Amino acid sequence: MKFMNKKLNNFKKRFLTLSLTAVLSLSSLGLVFADGTRVVTLGSNLTQAQKDTMLKYFGVNKDEVVILEVNNQEERKYLQGVASEAQLGKKTYSCAYVEPTKSGSGINVKTANITWATPAMVATTLSTAGLTDADVVIAANFPVSGTGALTGIMKAFEDATGKPLEEDKKELASEELITTGDLGDDIGQDKATGIVNDVKTEIIKNNTKDTVQIAETINNVVNNYNVTLTDEQIAKLEGLMEKISKQDYDYSEMKNALESVSNVVNENLSAIGENVNTGFFDGIKNFFTGIGDWFKGLFSGESDGSSILDNTNDSLLGENAQIDATDKSTINLPSSEQVEGFFAKIWHWFTGLFNNDSNNQNNTEQTEITPNEENNTTEETINSIDENSSTEETPQDSADTTASNEGDSLLDVQTQDQGSFETQEQQSN
Prior knowledge:
- There is one protein chain.
- The protein is an alpha/beta fold.
- It contains 18 helices and 6 strands.
- Helix 2 links the parallel strand 1 and strand 2.
- The C terminus is likely disordered.
């Protein structure tokens, strides 16, 4: 009996020692990881005052985050060969704020003054780069294209996690961004993003390798979006998807990010009266998912501020700043007019779901409701045009600058009138 008690006591001591060691080790690892989980990248061609403003916009102090700079040479490393010289530019102004999140969170993106790359476009592109769960904010002091931010995001994510992304996947992500953006110039950014995201989803989910099957998948998805692509556009998509099919993507890890992008695209298209032909039951699923997300944002109340997307100072960039996000609740809560328009859209969608005959009674009911929705949309469009009228004039004024490539990637160069931007910067400060 004494012998048994002695053995038991020895076991307890060893267990406690091992447990304490494990706890201390994990705590140490946790502290190391916590110190580097939030990383900000700043365009190297910004002035110090502009960099300070971006930190204020992100809601951080210099000693709270890791700060990295991204220059045009780093952009060219991944964009050279897939982007034109005009798109590459010679300067980088885009900034990014990245925080890895828990597994299953997906990729959530918010943009400010980014004119070419939409939040959904960035999100699906990042999934190609190998990101699975992260909150991302892309912003600039003035309107820029946002192509420079992709390099910054990948660099920030690697620094935050301590894990390098595969070079092949980073190159593919850059190629996908340019391919999607160019396609979006012709058919609209949402449709272009939806097509690329949906094709990529099918290719990865079904582990499709055969070139004929890849071509058939592209054809089917394109038909779902009711668009006609040129032979050159189809060829670019096929080339991109063939490269993606050769990578070792894990669909279970990407599923949340890819589905989230699909939902955002469907919601954006539905808001302008267009729908993706994904089938009856998929349409039902997307519809109720959209309602659930909307109510979640509407009644969630004050944010707990736990996400970097909620902590941005949107007003700091001025009333003309272009703010968008995959999760619209991170921008602001809807007004009463937006609520009314939302329910009009619900009724419009629901009555049209079961009957496509434009002359039946259901369509009459839709017509009675549509004017309210159109009035809201028209009013918002007019306000948007008024707010961005000065931005629209700037590219024309600096067309010669674009030709000489003295600006940031793509519209970064086209939209900057340095004198006016410095004035805006001084006003914002």
